[in-house]
Amino acid sequence: MAVTVETLEKLERKITLSLPLAAIQTEVDNRLKKLARTVKMDGFRPGKVPMNVVAQRYGYSVHYEVLNDKVGEAFSQAANEAQLRVAGQPKITEKEGSPEGQVTFDAVFEVYPEVKIGDLASAEIEKVTAEVSDAAIQKTLDILRKQRRTFAQRAADAAAQDGDRVTVDFEGKIDGEPFAGGKSDDFQFLVGEGQMLKEFEDAVRGMKSGESKTFPLAFPADYHGKDVAGKTADFLVTVKKIEAAHLPEVNDALAKSLGVAEGTVAALNADIKKNLEREVKSRLVARNKQAVMDALVAKAELDLPKSIVQAEIDRMVEGARADLKQRGIKDADKAPIPGELFTAQAERRVRLGLVVAELVRGNNLQATPEQIKAHVDELAASYERPEDVKRWYFSDNRRMAEVEAVVIESNVTDFVLGKAKVSEKTISFDELMGQA
To answer: N or C: which end of the chain has fewer CB within 10 A?
Structure first.
């Protein structure tokens, strides 16, 4: 087999493969003979079909199959001999005017780039920390109480206020004409909790049971109902019932109802704090890891293989279609989603993946079995039956690969933080949780 390698541009290469026709034909004949022993055809007993009939029926497909196999083998051998790290699938085309007794192909492909990582000691990274405050525990407790609130009807002369549950009839019209979704009877919502548009809540707040009111409501331009988005409707609303919310007392009974084993307020607070600390730790790890990855990408120089970027774009488009399908969108698998929407994100993912892989290879940052086990133990610790969760992870190679990837990212994060100029910043619990 004669092999030549050309550099077309940055990462693009071309290998010319020449294969002897005799070797291809010999393999085709061998496969057809093997096929003739088992093939079933009308008018012939199994194993008794004449070779010329088998060749006529299956010759083209077998020849195509052998050619694919031989070219694939030749390409792999040539790439290995040239010590090329092939990125993506090669584009293989047959050349015209091959020498006598030969068939020649051009294989155009990309190789993985050389990754140059700059001096990490000059990288500046802000590492954030946060604490679980008493206020955060109280806020969580208030949410848990609100989830278990009960409602009791207010007095007839009571006005609706924030926190009340109101039952209303309403009808909206645009230019005097009703519209789809603009009418409802015995509709319930909680005042002041953003369940309705602000103008609607403002109109109902202060009304009493039995009262009616007409008011204008301007639908936002980005309102989900396209027929009314950006238009103003006149609504007639009638309040039929007002119910006040009653939150459960913070006592041992509440603790027991929330599944706290000890059944005490102190144990409930401790349980909330433990869960919040777990969430805070998870978010801090994610945020600081992101800061490290940003710094790492900024310090790296490399060319991106177009084929790998395109594969990532294709994967993201399919992911978007799967998300639409999960939401019940009809014909989601045929949705016209432009790949350009994901180009920048795909390029960043590929760049980061190549940089991280280079850092791992060059500094022995692979995940050890002990690290993987420790991470699974940590993941399982928050469940009632940790051993079942551990078995669930260890029984699936895909799940274990995901765990391994997380551990490797942690190793890279620790390695970079150990090299870079790190400044620590304490942020509030609310800011970390995205509530500030």
So the answer is: C
Q: Distance between CA atoms of 217 and 237, rounded to whole angstroms?
A: 12
* Spatial separation of the C-alpha atoms in residues 87 and 396, rounded to whole Å: 27
pLDDT digits (tens, 9 = 90+) for 329-350: 777 777 788 888 899 999 999 9
Q: Judge if 66 and 7 occupy the same domain.
A: yes
- Give the β-pairing of 86-94 and 212-218: unpaired
For position 49, which CATH number holds? 3.30.70.1050
How far from the centroid of its chain's Cα atoms is residue 410's Cα? Answer: 19
Task: Compute the mean pLDDT over every residue in the chain, rounded to the nearest whole number.
Answer: 88
Residue listed under structure tokens 């496969």:
31
Dist CA 100 CA 112 (whole Å): 35
Angstrom distance (rounded) from CA 317 to CA 332 = 11
How many other C-beta atoms lie within 10 A of the C-beta of residue 160?
25
Q: What angle do CA 291, 292, 298 make, to 5 degrees?
A: 95
Query: Do 322 and 183 fall within a single domain?
Result: no
